[in-house]
Task: structure prediction
Amino acid sequence: MNYILKNENAVYYECGFSCDNEVFLKLGSEAFFITDARYTTEASELVRNAVVLEGDRRDLLKTVRLLIRKSGIKAIAYNPSEWSVDEFGRLSDKLSITFQKKPNFSQQKRMVKSDIELDVLRQAAIYGRDAFHRFGEFLKKDGLGLDEKLAHFEAEAIYKYHGQLGLSFSPIVAFGANAAKPHALPSHKQLTQNELVLVDAGVMYQRYCSDRTRTSHFGENFSFNKEQLFSDGHRQKVYDTVLFAQEAAINAAKVGVLAKEIDKAAREVIERAGFGKFFVHSTGHGVGLDIHELPVISARSETIIEENMVFTIEPGIYLPDEFGVRIEDTVVMTRKGAEVIG
Amino acid sequence: MNYILKNENAVYYECGFSCDNEVFLKLGSEAFFITDARYTTEASELVRNAVVLEGDRRDLLKTVRLLIRKSGIKAIAYNPSEWSVDEFGRLSDKLSITFQKKPNFSQQKRMVKSDIELDVLRQAAIYGRDAFHRFGEFLKKDGLGLDEKLAHFEAEAIYKYHGQLGLSFSPIVAFGANAAKPHALPSHKQLTQNELVLVDAGVMYQRYCSDRTRTSHFGENFSFNKEQLFSDGHRQKVYDTVLFAQEAAINAAKVGVLAKEIDKAAREVIERAGFGKFFVHSTGHGVGLDIHELPVISARSETIIEENMVFTIEPGIYLPDEFGVRIEDTVVMTRKGAEVIG
Result:
C-alpha cells in the first residue's frame, strides 16, 4: 500500500524519528522522510528505513508532489483526520491519482504493541506511579490551604521529574466540587481538611505515555492508594461504586471479548447503584505514542480485544456541584487477562 | 455573515469561553455554543451572547448539522485551515448549502484590539517584563555552569509565576552558538563567562500572550537590559546593528503605513551593515489570543497599520556556528506611534 503520513507519532512509528515539520511517504518499496533545513542533520542520523530529503520550510508539499509525480503510482492512502481542507487542497491539486481515505490506519497498526513498545510503556507506567507517590507525599506535607493552581504547578514539576520527562497531558488536579467536572481546569479553590482530591496525570517516557487517575480523601494518612476512607458516607458509597466498577471492568477484559463488554461491566455496576446517568464518558481508551489511541472501550465499540493491546480502564461518577470520583489504571492485555501496569 | 468556528481562541473571542471540544455557530442573529457533557456546566456559566447546547461528545457535528438544517440558511463561512478533510466531510455531507472558504477570517477580526483587550495585553506584557527581570536575577546569581536544559526548566517556572500564569510558548533559552538557531531547542551546553545569552519568552495572562526577546552578555552586572556591553567587538557590532534596526522599525511604525515599510526599516539597517542574508525571518507578527496572529510584519505584507493593532518588532542576525542576536518588543499602535508595552 502506498501511503502518506503527517502526524508526528504516526511518522515516528514508521521510522523512529519525527520533528515538527515533515511528511512521510511510502511509495511501493521506497520510503521518504521530507523535512526542512532545520531538521535534516538530525533526521539523517536518526531516520530508519527511509530516505531523508530536504524541502522548502514553507512548502514541503512541493517536494512531496514531485515525488508522487515521479513515482508513477496510481493511488495513495491518507488519513483524512491528519490533513486540513486547506493543506489537502494544496497536496492533491491537479495530481491525477486517487487519494484513498483510510481513517486511523496508523492507529490501527499501532493498536497491538510490540515487545519493545511494551517495555517502554511499562517503564512509563512505573515513572507515572512513582510521580503519584511523590505528589501524594507533597500534598500530605504541604497540601492544606494550597489552591488548585499551585498544586497543579507542583504536579507538573513532579510528573516532569524536574525536566527529565515529558507529560502525556497537563495534569488534572481538582478539589471537591471541581472534581465533578471530568476535565476540570485548576482554580483558586483551596484544599481543606476532609476534602476530596482527584488527580489524573501521566508522564511521557521515550515518547510513550502513562495514564492514571486517583481520587482520595484529604485527611490523616493521605495517599493515592485505592483504599480510601471518606468521612462522609455518601462519598464513600460513590467511591466504592466506582472502585467496584473498575474492578469489574478489569476482570471482564479478556483476549477475545468485544471492547463494549468491558464498558458494560463497569457501567452495570454504576447503574445498579443508581448513578448511571452520572457516568458521562466511556470506560477507557488505548494508550501508546498518543495519549488517546485505539482501542476505544465504549458502549458501542465492536473492537475485539487482542493480546498486547494497552488501554485504560477509568469509570467515574460526577455529581454536579458536589464532587466527582474517577479511578483509572492502564492495563496490558495478556492471555491471562488484563495486567495493571505501573 | 453566517459562520462556523472550531479553533479555541476564535471561539473564545466570540463568546468569552472555550474548552477542547466545541463548535461555535453564528446563524443570522443567533449564536450557538455546542459542547459535550464534560463542559456544559462551565459553559453555561461563562458563555456570553450564545446559547449553550449539549451534543454527543464524539459527534458534536450531529447537533451542528441539525441546527444548520433548521435555520434554513443558504451559505456559511468557514476557515479551511481549522477543519480536517474528515471533519469537514462529516460537517458538509448532504447539506445543500454553500460552504464559503474564508481563510483567517477570525484572525482578521481580531487584528485591531478593543480597549479591554489592550488592558489585558498591557498587563500580560508587564508580567512578561517582570519575569525577564526575575529570570535575569536568577541567571546572574546561579547561571554560571548551568546547562540550557536546566535554565529552560527554571525559565518555565519563573515565566509561569509558579503556576499563576500560563506560557505563551515554551521559552527559548540559548547560549552562544545555539543562539544562531532562531528556534533553538535547549541542549546540555553550559553557560560560561562572557557567553552570549538569548531568551525569547512570554506569559499568558487571561488567555492573552506577551512576547519579548533579549540578548545579553553574560558577565559582570548581567541583566536583560537593552544596553549591553560585549567583550568582543564583533558581537558588539552585530548587537548594535540589531538594536538600531529595532529602533528604526519602531520609529517607522505609524498608523497608515504598510506593514512592509516597518519590515523595510529594520531590514535596511541590517543590510547596510552587511548582515542582510543573516536576517532570516520577518520583522514581526501580531500578538493576542494567539502568539502568532495578524498583522504579519514582513517584506511582502500589504496590511495597512491601524490604531490598536498589537504586534512584535523583532529583527535578528544569525551567524551559523557563531552566535545569534534578536531583540524583540511588543508594541501597541497609537496615533502618536508605536508604544512599547511591558
Summary: Residues 3 and 26 of chain A are 5 Å apart (CA to CA).
